[in-house]
Amino acid sequence: DPQFFLEGGGLVTVAQVPGKMSVLVDGKSVLDAATIASVRVPATGRKLAVIAGKTASAGLAGQQLFLDGKAVAGTEGAQRVYLSPDGKRHAVLCRTKANSLVMVIDGVKGSEYSGVDETSHVPFFSADSATFTYVAYNAGLAFVVTNGKESPGYQSVAAKPVASPRG
Fold first, then answer.
1. pTM, two decimal places
2. What does the DSSP 8-state code read for residue 18?
3. Angle 75-77-82 (CA atoms, 0-180°, nearest 5)?
4. Among positive and negative, which fits the CA dihedral 89, 117, 158, 150?
5. Given this model, what pLDDT does residue 57 score?
6. In CA terms, which of 27, 29, 47, 91 is 20 to 30 Å from 115?
7. By percentage, how much of the chain surpasses pLDDT 70?
8. What is the pLDDT of residue 159?
């Protein structure tokens, strides 16, 4: 799945050779890993977000987020990364060793939950990149979480949360 940086150009691809995978920008390696699960580029800017594992045998637990080739502390167990429209912010969904889920937003670890809705309530950044919102579950209650702040617990959330154009 080749991707292009819209600002400044640049083709982002993944190459696989025996024993490793590489993220390439214009054919030059910028990150080598045993596994590469996801590569994302923002709508603007040139931030490169990669979920990769240094050892294939560690599975999902061994994956973490790499931004521009550097490991992001606290993102072990990374499963999915979200980039803001302006390309300056990021959020990553991680599975903990206790099998709970936690969202790490701009390097700040949030609360742990038994589930995060990624189907009808897709986690998202507002159009101005100011807020990141998702729906999480614990003990039979649903929580709308915005920039790490949790709503009161609800029995359910019937519709996808929305954000105004300015957060």
1. 0.88
2. T
3. 60
4. negative
5. 62
6. 47
7. 95
8. 82
82 to each of 18, 39, 65, 108, 154, how far by Cα in Å? Answer: 30, 11, 11, 14, 25
Nearest alpha-carbon partner for 56 in 31, 34, 32: 34
CA distances from 18 to 12, 35, 69, 95, 134 (A): 20, 11, 21, 28, 38
Kindly list the distances between the CA atom of residue 104 and the CA atoms of 44, 59, 62, 75, 90, in Å, as whole numbers in the listed order: 21, 20, 16, 7, 8
Asked if residues 116 and 161 have their Cβ atoms less than 8 Å apart, the reply is: no
- Alpha-carbon torsion, ordered 67, 71, 73, 79, to 10 deg: 70
pLDDT in tens, 79-109: 999 999 998 999 999 999 999 999 999 999 9
Structure-token pair, residue 28 = 């030059």
Which tokens is 160 given?
Answer: 């996808």
CB–CB of 98/109 below 8 Å?
A: no
